[in-house]
From TrEMBL:
Gene: glcK
Protein name according to UniProt: Glucokinase
Keyword annotations of the record: Kinase, Transferase
GO terms for MF: kinase activity
SUPFAM superfamilies, per database record: Actin-like ATPase domain
Keyword flag Membrane: no
Top-rank lineage group of the source organism: Bacteria
Length: 304
């Protein structure tokens, strides 16, 4: 960081199903400016939009940008920058990293959106200990997946599948999963799954918790099933990588404190039966993903 003060700016781009957001950040991850545009469909439009929103966020400082980081849905090969199957944007196969780099004239790094958000949450929530240790980010979105950041570095694994815990089957006699297995965690405790199990409201989770707190029988049953699956998810993550912080993110986490309360109650119930679990004190490690900040864009920039 001594002779590198000129090119310390990075741009993070968060590609979503309906919008693309970019943030200009400094070396610490602090946001200097941001921009967002509606997402268009198809390879060429996606590449053009990423570069265009990146230029908007950087403004006159674009020439001082050392790298662009992108977080995107789909199947991402972060080593090559290739992305497959961004369903909402009609992208089947795209060399996103190389094409954006060619158009923007800047090195580009691509991560999947959950991994990018994990880095962003780690930067924003790391506190006095910064990026030390392991921080796990649980994304309760359309699917269920985790991003794992160790001392500021993403854990990808051998094939890029580290953190894909949504397809661990824990209830063999329950619901069929689109992946082909039965009883995957994702069939019960992803945002989309809760929407199917509790179709009475949008968003479903705050309403489900409210109805369960009024002792409505059906709500109590559904919430119990969902929260047990969340408890299993958290234990699998916690007992595999022993993270310092467990961040709850994705659409369902916007439920906020009521969600933290029901998860805490479930973990405390389990602790009361298990001294080992009690010694881990997992409720103390739970955090909500920061609201009102471009977490995915910040993380994409810092992972670049
Ligand atoms: Zn599955």
């Amino acid at each position: 960081m001594t002779d590198n003060t000129v090119n310390n700016f990075r741009i993070g781009v968060d590609v979503g199903g309906t919008k693309i957001e970019a943030a200009l950040v400094d070396a610490t991850g602090a946001v200097l400016n941001s921009a967002r545009i509606p997402a268009r469909h198809g390879n060429a439009a996606v590449v053009e939009d990423i570069v265009s929103v990146a230029r908007q966020a950087a403004g006159t400082r674009f020439d001082e940008v050392s790298a662009i980081g992108i977080g995107t849905p789909g199947t991402v090969d972060s080593a090559t920058g290739h992305v497959g199957n961004i369903v909402n944007l009609d992208v089947v196969s795209l060399d996103m990293g190389p094409e954006v780099s060619r158009l923007a004239g800047v090195p580009v790094h691509v991560e999947n959106d959950v991994n990018a958000a994990a880095v962003g949450a780690a930067v924003l929530l790391g506190g006095a200990d910064g990026l030390d240790g392991t921080i796990a980010f649980l994304n309760f979105g359309t699917g269920l997946a985790a991003g794992i950041v160790q001392n500021g570095v993403l854990l990808h694994g051998y094939s890029g599948a580290a953190g894909e815990i949504g397809h661990i089957p824990v209830e063999p006699h329950r619901l069929k999963c689109p992946c082909g297995q039965y009883g995957c965690l994702e069939t019960v405790c992803s945002g989309a799954a809760v929407g199917r199990l509790w179709p009475n409201a949008d968003p479903p989770m705050p309403d489900l918790i409210r109805c369960a707190s009024r002792r409505e029988a059906k709500a109590v049953d559904v919430l119990d099933m969902v929260v047990r699956a969340i408890g299993d998810t958290i234990q699998i993550l916690a007992q595999s990588v022993d993270p310092r912080l467990i961040v709850l993110g994705g659409g369902m986490a916007k439920t906020g404190e009521p969600l933290v309360e029901v998860i805490t109650a479930e973990l405390r119930r389990r602790e009361s039966q298990c001294r080992f679990l009690e010694s881990l004190d997992l409720p103390a490690r739970l955090r909500l993903a920061p609201a009102g900040q471009p977490v995915g864009a910040i993380g994409a920039a810092m992972a670049a």
